[in-house]
Specification:
- By secondary structure, the chain is of the alpha/beta class.
- It contains eleven helices and 18 strands.
- The strands form three sheets. Strands 1, 10, 13, 14, 15, 16, 17 and 18 form an eight-stranded mixed β-sheet that branches. The protein has an eight-stranded parallel β-sheet with strand order 8-7-6-5-4-3-2-9.
- Helix 6 runs parallel beside helix 7, helix 7 packs across helix 8 and helix 10 crosses helix 11.
- The chain binds pyridoxal-5'-phosphate.
- The site of pyridoxal-5'-phosphate has 12 residues, from helix 9.
């Protein structure tokens, strides 16, 4: 059997959830959208069902998958609904919905519902992607209230730069949110992972931790005690030596300047490992630091075993996990851990803890 697999540590997931909840105070919706950032939404939600205050997914179909798997806790649709018929599904499945745009508000006003919904009213405080402008928040709130179709209204916003310490824009977003909501009743929710860890002023009634649950610290200084949840690993499947001047792999990008022992690893970009990483990107072989050499192929990649004479066929290779932080690979690939984790596919998933 091909040795490529993603090992998912559910005890680490619970540890990270507790840490988020404790750090933030109040309650926390575990964000399990995008198949729990690539970790397996059903397994992750089941692992958290006992202690999470609730869950957040992007849209209805993601929520239905979790409800069908027996997840009963509160569940928020972060994008809200796309068509009026989904409102009935939300009522039936007891889902909470975000309302972030006039079209969604009108949909709610003009649709007959069997029971009122829990609504999270999203206010655009500066990200300018979704949400009502601060000056429109009160009118939107009044219309929700007047519709008779809402059980309660939570007020929320989302930060554009919470993972950057001390940027003025996050303070400004908090100030705008507070001004827009001062006269409105209802619980508040501001903080994603970056704000939970880095912006104490943003800690309110509900946190919305995503990436931190999976153990990738969004802040540059890290050191928050998160535990990596996914280990992406495989094994050496062949070893060869190349001579100085010989090129390795597609495009001949890596050219040996000394006799080089090359380990061929069963992992490629079709598994979600980023194709764009340069020579020198860290990996771990049998627990020892090594590096990618040569272009990543679809099913395989190559690592430098020159300094690891005992490494051989079958040696374990960690692409990311406890030995190789996913943030380091993301930086090498010019992206963020979110994207790498979401992209993992084709490999076997094993769950423990
Ligand atoms: C995805 C998402 C989150 C989680 O963000 P992280 O940075 O992963 O913690 C929180 N809130 C909203 C509205 C989101 O879309």
């Amino acid at each position: 059997m091909r040795p490529a697999r993603a090992l998912i540590d559910l005890a680490a997931l619970r540890h990270n959830y507790r840490l988020a909840r404790e750090r933030h105070g109040g309650r926390a919706l575990a964000v399990v959208k995008a198949n729990a950032y690539g970790h397996g939404a059903v397994q992750c939600a089941c692992a958290l069902e006992g202690e999470a205050d609730g869950f957040a997914v992007a849209f209805l179909e993601e929520a239905l998958t979790l409800r069908a798997a027996g997840i009963r806790k509160p569940m928020l649709l972060l994008e809200g609904v796309f068509e009026a018929s989904e409102l009935a599904d939300a009522v039936r499945e007891d889902l909470w919905i975000v309302i972030h745009h006039e079209a969604q508000l009108r949909m709610l006003e003009t649709t007959t519902l069997a029971a009122p919904l829990h609504v999270w009213l999203k206010i655009n405080t500066g990200m300018n992607r979704a949400g009502f402008l601060p000056e429109a928040a009160s009118a939107a709130w009044q219309r929700l209230q007047a519709s008779g179709k809402v059980a309660d209204i939570t007020l929320m916003t989302h930060f554009a730069r919470a993972d950057e310490p001390q940027v003025i824009t996050t303070s400004e977003q908090i100030t705008r949110f507070d001004a827009a909501t001062a006269a409105l009743p209802g619980a508040h929710s501001l903080a994603n992972s970056g704000a939970i860890l880095g912006w104490p002023q943003a800690r309110r009634d509900w946190a919305r931790p995503g990436i931190l649950l999976y153990g990738a610290d969004p802040l540059p200084q890290e050191g928050n005690g998160l535990q990596p949840v996914m280990t992406l690993e495989s094994a050496v499947m062949a070893v060869r030596e190349i001579a100085p001047g010989e090129a390795l792999g597609y495009g001949g990008r890596f050219v040996a300047d000394a006799p080089t022992r090359v380990g061929l690893v069963a992992m490629g970009y079709a598994d979600g490992y980023p194709r764009g990483v340069p020579d020198g990107t860290p990996v771990s072989v049998d627990g020892h630091p090594s590096r990618i050499i040569g272009r990543v192929s679809m099913d395989m990649l190559t690592v430098d075993l020159s300094r690891l004479p005992t490494a051989t066929i079958g040696s374990r290779v960690e692409l990311w996990g406890r030995e190789v932080p996913v943030n380091r690979v993301a930086a090498a690939a010019g992206t963020i851990a979110y994207e790498l984790l979401c992209n993992v596919k084709r490999v076997r998933f094993s769950y423990q803890g």
